[in-house]
């Protein structure tokens, strides 16, 4: 029994001696250094990936805003070409189309701190235009051509107001894009 | 489109209003805010009266943009060539707002009176 215990103690002693000598050996120190270096590089790569991700996100946002400004300009040009002899059906179709397009473009920015008010103003203008258009919905025996400018007079101010709201938003989006670009430049330097 | 800025038309608007009230001019409703009167004698002519409700953006006392509802009126006189000879818009001539609103209310009131008297004529009397 005593012999077994002494054998175990001798074994432990020899393991300790082995470890002590391993700590001091070059291959062991080298492997520690390589592992540490690997860990450091992994950490740096992780940080760089994070930066790349946010840069890609900002680039995506810049492209999206550029697309929005192009579409807003198109809608604005369409509104500029409102003809005095526009009839109810044409005006209704035009309002439906621009309303759908504008809502799709601006709704993601409805809670954006810098755009919130302008988005709401645009939505209010669209709603007013719809009310004005309903005020000239043809009824009775009269045909629409009897009052050829009625629709135009009813909606021209509302459409001009929508266009003003679009112009305001265009300016703000363009500024937002400039800010994004500046931020990117800052990050790159 | 001509926009008569002179107030020479004011007596005519007054005269049209009187003729409407006395039911000598009967108007046709083109849409909820537009009425038309037309004649073939002595020559083809048409008068269009329209109420225009606009929502305008204005700055309030705190410099915030707010929507303000404004009502304006328009009268147009057409000859046979289908282009307006006279066009008066109260948004461009504030003095015209009151006489045109009186004319519009007279036309609208007459139409409502006509509709009610028709309803009255078709309903069975209470004594039956």
Task: Tell me what the structure shows.
The complex is a heterodimer of chains A (189) and B (128). Chain A has 189 residues and is mainly alpha-helical. Chain A has a single domain (2-188), classed as A middle domain of Talin 1 (Up-down Bundle). Chain A is built from 5 helices and no strands. Chain B has a 5-stranded antiparallel sheet, covered by helices on one side. Chain B has one domain (7-122). The mean pLDDT of chain B is 87. Helices cover 30% and strands 35% of the residues of chain B. Chain B is globular, with a radius of gyration of 18 Å. Chain A binds chain B through residues 84, 88, 117, 121, 124-125, 128, 131-132, 134-142, 144, 146-150, 153-154, 157-158, 161, 164, and chain B through 1, 28-34, 36, 38, 46, 48, 50-57, 65, 67, 74, 76, 82, 84, 89.
Number of domains of chain A: 1
Helical residues, percent of chain B: 25-40%
Structural class of chain A: mainly alpha
What CATH first level of chain A would be assigned? Mainly Alpha
Strand content of chain A: under 5%
Largest interface: A-B, 30 and 27 residues
Q: In percent, how much strand structure appears in the residues of chain B? A: 35-45%
Strand elements of chain A, count: 0
């Amino acid at each position: 029994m005593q012999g077994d215990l002494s054998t175990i103690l001798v074994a432990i002693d020899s393991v300790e001696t082995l470890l002590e000598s391993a700590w001091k050996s070059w291959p062991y120190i080298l492997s520690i250094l390589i592992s540490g270096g690997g860990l450091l590089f992994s950490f740096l790569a992780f940080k760089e990936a994070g930066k790349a991700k946010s840069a890609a996100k900002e680039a995506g946002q810049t492209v999206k805003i550029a697309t929005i400004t192009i579409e807003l300009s198109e809608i604005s040009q369409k509104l500029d070409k409102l003809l005095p002899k526009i009839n109810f059906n044409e005006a209704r179709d035009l309002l439906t189309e621009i309303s759908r397009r504008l809502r799709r473009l601006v709704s993601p920015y409805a809670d954006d701190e810098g755009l919130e008010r302008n988005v709401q103003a645009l939505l209010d203008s669209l709603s007013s235009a719809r009310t004005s258009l309903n005020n000239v919905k043809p009824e009775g025996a009269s045909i629409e051509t009897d009052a050829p400018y009625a629709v135009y007079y009813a909606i021209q101010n509302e459409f001009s107001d929508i266009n003003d709201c679009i112009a305001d938003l265009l300016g703000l989006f363009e500024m937002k894009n400039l800010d994004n670009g500046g931020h990117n430049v800052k990050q790159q330097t | 489109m001509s926009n008569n800025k002179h107030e020479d038309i004011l007596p005519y608007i007054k005269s049209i209003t009187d003729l409407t009230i006395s039911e000598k001019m009967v108007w046709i409703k083109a849409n909820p805010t537009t009425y038309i009167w037309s004649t073939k004698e002595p020559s083809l002519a048409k008068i269009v009266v329209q109420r225009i409700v606009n929502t305008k953006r204005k700055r309030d006392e705190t410099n915030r943009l707010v929507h303000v509802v404004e009502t304006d009126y328009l009268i147009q006189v057409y000859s046979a060539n289908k282009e307006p000879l006279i066009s008066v818009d109260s948004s461009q001539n504030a003095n015209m707002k009151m006489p045109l609103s009186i004319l519009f209310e007279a036309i609208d009131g007459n139409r409502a009176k006509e509709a009610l008297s028709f309803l009255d004529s078709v309903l069975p009397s209470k004594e039956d």
